Model the fold of this input.
Amino acid sequence: MATCRSWVIRHDFIPPGYSNAIRSDTRRLDRPNTGISQRAFSSTPSLYNWLAPKRGHSDKNRTGKPRVRTGGSTKGTTVEWGDYGIRLRDHHRRIPAKQLEIAANTIRGRLRGQRYRLYTRVCANIGVYTKGNEVRMGKGKGSFDHWAARVAVSRILFELKGDLHEQVVRDAFRLAGNKLPGLYEFVRKGDPPVMGITKIEAGMTLQEMHRPMIKLPMDKTAQRIPATSPP
Done:
């Protein structure tokens, strides 16, 4: 079994031939503890939990709505790191962390034995608080129940990269979509971005989407109403 060797720097003696980097490390170690975790001599990466924030649920979150970018931004609607992705297409939702975990485990179970990498584009950082049935109004928001993620419309949830056939990835995302609320679609790397619910494709540019709507004259708008007899 491989062993990890740790080097301990003495504060009272530094060889003259060493660089100033070691001296800066000693000054950093002499600082008082400010509550921030410092892993100076660890060779293992810190674990990232995307199903619960690190801060805890000290402040109660409001129900709110997902942040839908109406200024023309298409952030989060295209595949960035992987080759394939799954995208929400009906409307915004608040998805619990348990359902996101089940969907990720469903993808891993379908691709068991394959060489791939799964990317998560959302994180459950919104606390959901509940109260009992038949409780009078008032007396606070309730107690903490679970974590959830606010997912806007046309947002990528998962991405996948690896030497896999496209039909296999489609089937894995189909099974994951069945475990999640809402309607989803399969996207590839290089597919056009989405602004709201409109896909920017077929010669449509971002500048054209930013232009205000042209107000048509009265004679053209009046002709849209069907008439029983010609004028």
